[in-house]
Amino acid sequence: MRSHLLNDTTAEQYRRSVTEGVERVAAKLAATDRPFTGVSVDALAPRVDEIDLDQPLHDTAAVLDELEEVYLRDAIYFHHPRYLAHLNCPVVIPAVLGEAVLSAVNSSLDTWDQSAGGTLIERKLIDWTNERIGLGSAADGVFTSGGTQSNLQALLLAREEAKGGSLAELRVFASEVSHFSVQKSAKLLGLGQDAVVSIPVDHDKRMQTVALARELERCREDGLVPMAVVATAGTTDFGSIDPLPEIAELCEQFGTWMHVDAAYGCGLLASLKHRDRLTGIERADSVTVDYHKSFFQPVSSSAVLVRDAATLRHATYHAEYLNPRRMAQERIPNQVDKSLQTTRRFDALKLWMTLRTMGADGIGQLFDEVCELAREGWRLLAADPRFDVVVEPSLSTLVFRYIPADVTDPAEIDRANLYARKALFASGDAIVAGTKVAGRHYLKFTLLNPETQASDIAAVLDLIAGHAEQYLGESLDRAS
Ligand SMILES: Cc1ncc(COP(=O)(O)O)c(C=O)c1O
């Protein structure tokens, strides 16, 4: 069994084994002609169920053959140009190389004595990100598992920095289309049920700052404490960017923590064309960035950044067995002092390899391409009478719905769109997402693949129309 341990004596087996796996995946990626096979849960589950985990196969090739059956064949492939659903990007090769290195060396970024150079690399990437944001010389931050955790940590710091008020009196303001992790965080942080105040959005799905000002005022009048405003730079559905400068003004006026959730919009930090859309982000107290959304990084890769490094102390605990206080006094850099996690992956290495290979401009160029693709998609949708499209894209999403020429019942149109999404998924030809707008069911393209062409968008729209029409035809048959 020792032959399976990765060490000085098994380096050759490691090379062979990993190469075998890489060959399989490379062959798979090259031959994938659809983002999904359309397999059903009922068809796939028995294949996984029948495997006896107490009967190992011992042989890498056999294990990979089995993996083909239970996973690789039917996985959802984000690199395929017709995967258009959620905020998942195709990944860049330097980052995948980083992933292979980091799991083989297996550094843990909690303490210097488990990572050494890894800690320095992460710190340099945090500084690099902060410089791009413009948070100033006292800024700091830490890598996290994703935007949800970054938002949670930012709001933890905001809660601790809030001036006065019991937990029940703290209020967090976020737009009605902000990410649900804001609500989850409020709950985890012990705030009251009404803690998150939903602020309406304008026609472009951006937070209405007049409404925000009114709610902040009301909060003060009611003797409550405005703990934080969460501005979203790139909402999940619409990619809309809240008016950051106006929100910064209001936060200053009311002495409120400003958090910018740029989980999606952070790609603009590298953009060659649209960096100005993030103007105002430099005034935030904290920022969430998800490199695994718009920096083309494998899951997970995210960070929470703060204007004032000292605020990270709210996540600091010392333990004799790990990071005794004296280490901080000796200035030994233990990242666990800033993190909610203890054992932590060296995810930063992926971004490091990416920047050292392609440079930030390379990432920015790819992100600019998907934003341009979304504009082309919008032009297609706006000109197509079969579809209603909600807003012009700010980043790279399109929210739309099929509207049959001869059907006026909105509920029936809902059902046709829901059916089209399901049928498309089951066919595996393309994958699109869905959401609700003003109580009605819509479909969504999240465009994060520069390989997707306008012709793919046009073809998928035709497929959607075809499925919706089929549903409506069958529905007519049922009625008659
Ligand atoms: C705006 C926004 N914030 C936060 C998140 C949560 O990020 P994660 O899925 O990495 O936890 C998402 C995810 O889609 C998001 O769109």
UniProtKB/TrEMBL annotation:
**Which Gene3D superfamilies does the entry mention?**
Aspartate Aminotransferase, domain 1, PLP-dependent transferases, Type I PLP-dependent aspartate aminotransferase-like (Major domain)
SUPFAM superfamilies this protein is in? Answer: PLP-dependent transferases
Identify the InterPro entries for this entry.
Aromatic_deC, PyrdxlP-dep_de-COase, PyrdxlP-dep_Trfase, PyrdxlP-dep_Trfase_major, PyrdxlP-dep_Trfase_small
Q: Which Pfam families match?
A: Pyridoxal_deC
Tell me the cofactors it needs: pyridoxal 5'-phosphate
- Keywords carried by this UniProt record: Decarboxylase, Lyase, Pyridoxal phosphate
Q: Which family does it belong to?
A: Belongs to the group II decarboxylase family.
Q: What is this protein called?
A: Pyridoxal-dependent decarboxylase
